[in-house]
Write a structure and sequence with these properties.
The structure is a single chain. By secondary structure, this protein is mainly α. It has one domain. It has 11 helices and no strands. Helix 2 packs across helix 11. The longest helix has about 40 residues. The model has no long low-confidence stretch (mean pLDDT about 85).
């Protein structure tokens, strides 16, 4: 159930409550800095490098058996963050081409299906301003594309975190082999739990309406929660592969 993913991520974040508060404060300061504007997007890109880099550290930590937020290691975060952004841009670019094609076919504006899934207001607006049948087909096809691409992206990032090389992230036969070891059914169930958990937390976030500064504090809290649901979830799934691979290799040695 998604409940296990949601509560597991919360416990992982708060096991060391003081470090969690430190990371929370850091995220708060970063959030404030983003409000000052960035004409060329350089600061936004730097922030994304550190955030993706830390996410990959979380994956690596969970694969290695970690049960709490890993320490902030800037050098490692920068290297992993740059590589992680390259992987993300590749998948987003290919996914974007397909989604633009779907949008054109159904005469919808170019869209990000993740926004539709996690932004209930945007979904309702599109549904109310278009033909129901067209919207249903548009939404279902978009969800399928998003699901499939993210399905493989999760393992691509996990392999990057585990091995540290871009080659691992684009080693598609190895990605398939990892899913074979985990089991396609088990992987699909675990991956779907992550997606459903993200949707649940997003709906909860949108349902709470408060004033500054409470609103920004809650947004950061929910962002961190969703961040860990995704990246810790990737680590948990990939750890299942590494554990089974060790057992498989040991059996073969005998």
């Amino acid at each position: 159930m998604p409940k296990d993913v949601i509560t597991g991520s919360f416990k992982y974040a708060t096991k060391n409550i003081y470090f969690f508060l430190f990371v929370f404060l850091l995220m708060f300061l970063i959030s404030l800095s983003l409000n000052f504007g960035d004409k060329f997007g350089i600061w936004n890109f730097i922030v994304s490098i550190f955030i993706i880099g830390y996410g990959l550290l979380v994956i690596k930590d969970v694969i290695d058996g970690g049960t709490r937020l890993p320490k902030i290691r800037p050098k490692e975060m920068i290297v992993l963050g740059i590589k992680g952004n390259i992987v993300l841009m590749f998948y987003i670019f290919v996914q974007g081409l397909i989604l633009i094609t779907i949008s054109t076919l159904f005469n919808f504006p170019e869209f990000d299906i993740e926004d539709l899934l996690l932004n209930l207001q945007e979904t309702i607006h599109l549904a109310s301003t278009h033909d129901p049948t067209s919207f249903a087909l548009f939404f279902v096809l978009g969800c399928i594309v998003f699901y499939i691409f993210t399905f493989f992206l999760e393992l691509a990032l996990a392999q990057l975190a585990d091995g540290g090389t871009l080659r691992n992230a684009f080693n598609f036969p190895k990605i398939k082999h990892a899913i074979d070891i985990i089991g396609w059914k088990n992987f699909t169930i675990d991956y779907t739990k992550i997606i459903l958990s993200l949707i649940i937390i997003s709906i909860l976030n949108n349902a709470i309406d408060t004033y500054w500064p409470i609103d920004i504090l809650l947004q950061i809290l929910f962002f961190m929660w969703m961040f860990l649901i995704e990246f810790r979830g990737m680590g948990v799934i990939y750890k299942e592969y590494t554990d089974k691979k060790i057992e498989f290799d040991q059996k073969n040695k005998k």
